[in-house]
Amino acid sequence: MKTGRFTLGFAYLRLSNEEAQGGESSSITNQRMIVQNYCKQNNITLVREFVDDGYSGGNFNRPGFKEMLKQLEQGKANLVITKDLSRLGRDMREASYYAEQFFPEHGIQYIAIADNFDTEHDNIMAPFLFAMNEVYLRDGSRKVKDVLRNKRESGQYCACPPYGYRKDQENRHRLAPDEATAPVVERIFKRAAAGDSSRKIALDLNADGVIPPLKYRVLYRDEFSEEGAARASDVWNYTTVKRILKNPVYLGHTLLGRSKKVSVKSKKKVAVPRDNWAVTEDTHPPLVDKALFQRAQENLGRGTRNYRAYDHVRKSIFGGIAVCARCGYSLCSCGTVYKGEREKYWYLSCTHQRQDIPEPCEGVRIRYADLVELVRQDLNSLLALSVREIEALAQEAARRVGSVENLKARKMKREQAEARVATIDKIVTKLYTDNAAGKLDDDRLNRMVGDLERESAGLKATLEELSAPSPAQQMADRYTQFFELARSYTHLDELDRDTLVTFVDRIEIGPKVYEDGRHRIPARANQPYRQSVRIFYKFIGEIEPETQEEQVDVPAS
């Protein structure tokens, strides 16, 4: 609104975090000084200034800008001034809309001082200025992505430190254990490995008064706005515990790039496929070892049943491991008591009924003690293997997926390709030397170098393919992992849950097959039967390709 010869206006100041690194020229202080000097020289009275410090110009969802529009609608001023057009925004479409359509249609004059833009005059260069601001926005986004990608590839941690860690004081791109919260993380993993559910762990942490991750950041580590700090809860919940248990950062690995922005102008993020995550191993001190992490993963989501605390309840060690070979569902612990005998009549059985399978799973049942003994004996047979026997076993497994001769051929091919690439580099250097000495004309140089570079590119592609581990090598590596794990064991007198989940991935129990081919017979018939039990070990899978079969006599029950 105009009062005599004076004009009342609003100053709008904006600075993104990326622009703040460019120096004082774009700072809020510098913008304020330029706008104030302009107003003094042109008899303009500033009613109020609106500031968005730390906000990108890629979109107009900014608190200061929104408040300014609200004040303009109430008629508090009819002039808006910015240092330049980029302060209004860098989105070409929206910046142009507000500057050339919204403000004029609402009787509001807009001035961008440095760009000599004024809605009361012709602005012939305006389209180019809007376009260049968006080019700057996109180029800045690309540069930020390049910097982040380089940091990720070199193993630098360029995100907010997860709970349990802080930034290393000597290297800000490396994580170091947080003395206050690292013990809490270790406690969570130990409890999960012992079988406690995520919900129970969260309840116990709350009972002990442990501060949850976001609240800890608000109180002791990071700076939050009032709105952000208000969202921090004072209690743990099971999803927070699960998030910690699933995060491989606690093994010492850096895992970044799990999400990305939809576009330069949007804050919305979408999930990135797991294969495209940036994973760098062994970049910082781990808080838990691999064995503890794996046991916690095995128990994650299984929960804890209160009835297991009672002595009279049968406690199976095969939960989630023993499955029905027909339908794939976990076997259920069941049984009865006869003349005071409990162990003798304890079974694992598939009671799941499904309409999409041709035959029911009622016959898939095995005596619990028989399965324990079978697995114990099979594990002991592996633990008793000599180094030579282990090597033979690994070679046989490797032979099934790829012969040793293939490994030698791959190695020879790789060495030949590496030697040829080195030779090509020397030849190209010699050609350029001859060209400089006048021994080789430019046309011939270009043809020869072009042919050699194409050959070199093909060889490098071959080397990249040969550098990837072959299926046989991968199998050999998995056998090495398994038997390194087995070194701490000699002989198992008893099989417990911890040992089982350390070595065994799953056990497939097949249906009973009696002598006449039937799967079910009348009760108390005491007829012998055959039943397949396939043990799939961690890393290496099933040792023998043939089905393991045990003949078991069933007592009357």
Description:
α5 packs antiparallel against α6 (126-153), α8 crosses α11 and α14 (387-401) packs antiparallel against α17. It contains 18 helices and 20 strands. It is flat, with a radius of gyration of 35 Å. Strands 1, 2, 3, 4, 5 and 6 form a six-stranded mixed beta sheet that branches. It has 557 residues and is an alpha+beta fold. The model is unreliable at 1-5 and 545-557 (pLDDT under 50). The protein folds into five domains: 2-140, Rossmann fold (3-Layer(aba) Sandwich); 165-299, Hect, E3 ligase catalytic domain fold (Alpha-Beta Complex); 311-383 and 491-552, no CATH class; 387-400 and 473-488, no CATH class; 403-469. 43% of the residues lie in helices and 16% in strands.
Major sheet: 6 strands, mixed
Strand composition percent: 15-25%
User: Averaged pLDDT, please?
Assistant: 79
Tally the structural domains: 5
Kindly report how far apart the N and C termini lie: 97 Å
The CATH architecture of the largest domain comes to 3-Layer(aba) Sandwich
CATH topology of the largest domain: Rossmann fold
Rg calculated over all Cα atoms: 35 Å
CATH class of the largest domain: Alpha Beta
User: What is the count of DSSP helices, taking H or I runs of 4+ residues?
Assistant: 18
Low-confidence stretches: 1-5, 545-557
Helix content: 40-55%
State the CATH superfamily name of the largest domain: Resolvase, N-terminal catalytic domain
The secondary structure category is alpha+beta
- Give the overall shape, derived from the CA principal axes: flat
